[in-house]
User: Fold these one by one.
Assistant:
Number 1:
Amino acid sequence: MRLSRYFLPLLKETPASAEIASHRYMLRAGMIKQHSAGIYSWLPLGFKVMKKIEQIVREEQNRAGAVEMLMPTIQGADLWQESGRYDDYGKEMLRITDRAGRELLYGPTNEEMLTDVFRTFVRSYKELPQLLYHIQWKFRDEVRPRFGVMRGREFLMKDAYSFDIDMDAAVVSYNKMFIAYLNTFARMGLKAIPMQADTGPIGGDLSHEFLILADTGESEVFCHADLVDMPAPGLDVDFANGDPNDLQSLVDERTALYARTDEMHEPSVFESEVPRSKRLSARGIEVGHIFCFGDKYSKAMGAKVMGPDGKEHFAQMGSYGVGVSRLVGGIIEASHDDAGIIWPKSVTPFGVGIINLRVGDDVCDKTCEDIYNQLCAAGVDPLYDDKKDRGGVKFSRMDLIGLPYQIVVGPRGLKDGIVEIKDRKTGERQNQSPEAAIAFITAQYADMSL
Ligand code: ATP
Ligand code: MG
């Protein structure tokens, strides 16, 4: 992409309303525009990052055996009356009446809708397990939308739902999602810690929230410090044919140590289980939440299947959410400096920025065009700053938008046949020939697995 043809409306001033770094940088870097409280337009740069995050979420859901579908944003009130949540959900639910006077709502989540799909089509245990997901906008009329996309009213969520014949099988589905979540967040460069969670209005027995540590997080968390650096299970977990006990051990290893949010925190247990030097109390951002709630919805809505015993059983269910749009802010909270954002390679909107310090100079222009064309061909997706601004403007702009690498092309270096590569995170600079720079950048994106 050539910057001269891109839509990147940067802000010079830091908006006063933005209290945290991610919100400030998303506004300043032209990623989002607020429409009204908690409702945003995603401008091209922000949209590109969100799509990359969404794709990682999708790949890890698919790897774990979940199947993608799409449900509507607008739901009928009738299903929610059946489950009993129409009244329970209260003011967070945006209620709408259509021209025929029918009560509708903008979905805050989809347990009811998918339970309805399930009860319509699935009759036998032979069709289980089912693990289905979609990535769709949600609306929750939050009391206090804030921190930009972190607590929006309209936000993008991946929500998956599992249906099993009994609780043992439901736990296997739960474990698959637990493992998939850790891999998902690790691929985004995040250290997410699973924490024992309150099951809240969704109800049920087994629940974990996944939190990334950040001073600006809304949740207070307490955990054993060793959890912070525990590696993700890895992409070679055999979800399809592996022994369920192996999945269970991976989960057990990661739930053995104390980790709870304030809602579930018990100081006496924390102090007795965790040695003083390992007690970590911090703040965190919830990026995912998984529940196993058994037959709560299947019973209320009559979602039954025939079991191997010839009797009808209510499906045992779980639901699994990831805050896709919140993650855009969460990743920035975890990775930025005073100059701007520092994107992890896996979600960066462009692989590298090419800065032409003298647009209009034949040699500079030609070198940049060559680098640009070759990197495009290599699939690195460069952003070429071909605008006629001063060097200082170009440097700070490129730092702000946070691409992992920059290639700086100027007349002085080119006299000696060199360009400069800058690593955005470390600030390290190296001088290379244009060919070597192209090879270096291409190599950085050659292996993007965990
Ligand atoms: P929170 O405790 O932050 O209000 P929740 O428990 O209501 O979240 P879930 O119903 O578990 O959220 O939703 C799944 C995921 O969706 C959350 O883990 C979070 O990442 C994301 N999410 C929830 N509410 C919002 C919101 N208002 N804005 C952006 N993302 C959200
Ligand atoms: Mg939650």
Number 2:
Amino acid sequence: MTAAAPSSIEVVAGRALPRLPWEERPPGSTEPIWRYSGNPVIPAHPFPSANSVFNSAVVPFGDGFAGVFRCDDRTRRMQLHRGFSADGLDWGIDPDPIRFRVDDPELGAFVYGYDPRVVELDGRYYVTWCNWYHGPTIGIAWTDDFVGFHKLENAFLPFNRNGVLFPRKIGGRYAMLSRPSDDGHTPFGDVFYSESPDLVFWGRHRHVFGAVPNSWQATKVGGGPVPIETSEGWLLLYHGVLTSCNGFVYSAGVALLDRSEPWKVLARAEPYVLAPDASYERIGDVPNVVFPSAMLCDAPTGRLAIYYGAADTVTALAFARVDELARVALEQPAES
Ligand code: BMA
């Protein structure tokens, strides 16, 4: 059964982004997401100490864009770096990692950080990432200018990954998706929703969705870019993992979540919308990984620029339209 899709699906409360990087879908393609012809948009070594730059987050900032980038260095330490771009394509990434200001020394020194997401919320930019505190958990920090970063309490106990803040309060509270994990290459994982009155204390945890047996998302799932609010629900791009005889394969799927109770899944597509195929997605430090972690959206047109890590080595860019992605979720749902 397919749900009846409405004739128009609009972005709610988004802004116009006249400088959004964009290419039209190539002639003859029927893909819901199509790749930038200049990929990878950020190479593995944009500065000499970088081993790889991937799974990173960008947002509109000033007249252009800013971002927080996962850069693994040549000791293979996982660091977070700031970067700026006028056009979303040509990025200047600071070779020095971000040094977070931490008010409470009990939070400990920065050990590692990876897979950041960035959201504009209440007039500030908030970064969430996988932060070491006796194992991986969700770090949160805010910045006004992408120069000074102020770290808050970790959101959850270890072990947790893929913390994704919603871009507004929901039901009067801040809202975050996360994926409880173990301290290794977790062979399980469902997406959960949590609320907070103050971005410090998190509770009212709700299950959102889990892995799907015998599919591209059979092993685990985790939130991707910050969700986009549409007239049909929150548009969520997420990653799903299959365990092949040669290791994990990371692909991307799409779902629509209820606007006021986002732990309720309105629609979820059965097929993936992006899977490793290009050489830079299949060959790298970890082969066969696409890991979407940011989306720029031009609200009036619904055009999307999707940034994703490829093979844990480079950052790639792809394009889609909000209404078409939402329709994939509505019109190609899994049998229930
Ligand atoms: C996950 C995270 C991601 C990475 C993926 C594939 O556990 O570490 O950063 O892209 O594995 O290696």
Number 3:
Amino acid sequence: MIFLMDEAMLNYKTILIWIIAISNAGLTEVAFADTSPPVAIAIHAGAGTISKEDFTATLELEIRDTLKKAVLAGYEILSSGGSSLDAVTRAITILEDSPHFNAGRGAVFNAQGKHELDASIMDGSGLEAGAITGVHNIRNPILLARKVMTDSVHVMLMGEGAQVFARAKGIEFADDDYFFTERRWQQLQKAKKEAKQEALYRPETMDHWMSTVGAVALDIHGNLAAATSTGGMTNKRWGRVGDSPIIGAGTYADNRSCAVSATGHGEYFIRATVARDICARVQYQGLDLAAAADAVIHGQLREMGGDGGIIAIDPKGELALTFNTAGMYRASVDVEGNLDVEIYNSE
Ligand code: ASP
């Protein structure tokens, strides 16, 4: 077998393509040069005001490991020719299965001590989208959002209607115990104590880390996808809907501009239509992705008083991981195959 490789490309992309080439090679001769179309992926698991002192070394390591596992799982799908929709779905299910993030298993509690889960997904190739809001006991809410996109004529299903749809579509349910984490329960108790008067209640000061999860990706066909999943905000009022399941606010994807997934104080992200605004600036103003993301996250959103961040990708595979908080859990693999896993602003 003959393999041709530029030494500078000894990174995840190369390693994955090598593995695929070797396993496909059998006994025949393979000449390999990387002329494949660009693929890239970014994920987030929330933005907030956490500092290094808030972590034990073990917790920080576990969080970084899970981010890495999720982004590489998505990247592997892209590298083997899979779709951006499959890549973002896979990355998100891994984050939803972790107790550390505010989505699926690690979701925060609402004011009634219950979970109300939101998720959305969008396909940039045809502007198809699916979303669910206010569901409970759904193990992987992103899989249900995707079913709404593919198996219904609607974009968003809510509450009990979404639960019935989930059962009909064979979506996996889990008991309340599965979703109970002591850390989230204690966050609720603290928030309740501090929220003496509802008029003074500011959720972002109760739970300093908004660890909603999201993913954006570009596949070899040039298709963009975005997905977001969350438990919302600690001590939220029963029935409250944040930005994460709202197409155009928390999630957006359009092959003509970009794909975006957001995290932050949802009430601001809804009013600023953050995800769509970034893509609109790319599409109509001709801004590059980073400039568009900066204008919205450090400009419009900040002026309104909104905290949070986004991950975004454009059709060339350019990435933007932009936030106006002290940190954002994030990871990416760019078009060159370079892996980054970061938490703090200063990394
Ligand atoms: N954006 C989410 C919401 O407002 C919260 C988060 O990002 O953690 O529901």
Number 4:
Amino acid sequence: MNRSYRYPLIMLSALFVVRFTPAAAATDPGDLGPARGSPIEEALVAPPNVPAPIHRDHPARVIVRLETHEVIREIADGVRYTFWTFNGSVPGPMIRVRQGDTVELHLKNDPTSHMAHNIDLHAVMGPGGGAASTVTPPGQESVFTFKAMRSGVFIYHCATAPVPMHIANGMYGLVVVEPPQGLPKVDEEYYVVQGDFYTTGSYHEPGLQPFDMQKMLLEQPTYVLFNGREGSLTGSNALTSKVGDAVRLFVGDAGPNLVSSFHVIGQIFDDVNVEGGTLVNHNVQTTVLPAGGATMVQMETLVPGTFLLVDHSITRAFMQGALGELKVAGPSRPDLYNKVSGGPILGAVAPPPEVAAAPGTVDATADGRRVFTQICAACHQGNAMGLPGAFPPLAMSDYLNSDPTRAIGIVLNGLSGKITVNSTGYESVMPPQGPQLNNDEIANVLTYVLNNFNNKGGTVSAAEVKAVRAASAPK
Ligand code: CU
């Protein structure tokens, strides 16, 4: 067609479109039509569990009931914090709907709350993501509806001023909008949200710790955590799977400040929904979660063992709490993974069994065992026998038993150069632990080692550690 005829024709057809298309607003491809059937009450569950997958072929009206609660509970063993929560958990429960659903969201604020709260869901296309319609004073309830127009994995969070403080105190979760055809079937699904926490006390300083606004402004968190508590996904709380299973993790990063480099040590993500959207990447080692972003990762657990969930900004994992465990049970697969020779397998020797401390208190023995397991066992081994030619034993150690006070200085300041332990020479380097462990922790771990592993017994006090620390501080 000749170019000069084209424009009038296009203009003419544009005129017809405007003139004869009824209700132009209903043509968005994300809109799957009006809700059908009776309204559905969503059965919410506490993290890391998730609601069941959706097997529905039509849009529905889904009622979601959230209630904000301000609660004091442990952020780490012996450390308490005032969390602000949706439904009492950090993160709040995962909301799961189907694209095209109309969500009727009820937000109640507990009458004993001190603050107003609201909710901004990133799955919402509307002012404030719902925050504009849900500012809720204590004892009241707000209701608003939205149609879930786009599938994906989305953060929700409180957006009441000061917004970063409400997020830093734990007010967030995920809303998953499944595509109309649903998600691929897997064997296990779990839900993990990372957050950064700011306390006036240092890492592991016991007692009730207030929120620290200055640390938050500097973006220097005391804790970086999965699901709002150190240990929420480790030990008896670990995620579980079986050899050969497909595992899906819905993962979010609520911030308020940090970006996460999410990684599972010893696994490769077969599928990653990039930034929680519909683009799927494959064979990914580490995926970036923006603050206020989320993703969905899927992996096959082929080999048994314990696999660590970390933020691979790895200081956060091993020194600020961003650590979880996925325990995979089943027969070994030596064709895929096999130790051929060398020293003991890491983690093969279990430390002595755990003894639960009363809530809100620090059990010195439990704390000592924790520090030993988290730090000392990496070199000295779980049975404290050390590694021949590399790391000296702490078990039955003449070097330790002859002078426990010397050991305080070694833990605080490290040690290098040749030493002789039980008639054997060692020349390795022990890094100083003084910067990351407080006086109580050093006292607890030394007392723990002295009273286990066939050592002579005895007690090291926090006051003794304090004195050695003061004496060795730079003048
Ligand atoms: Cu709030």
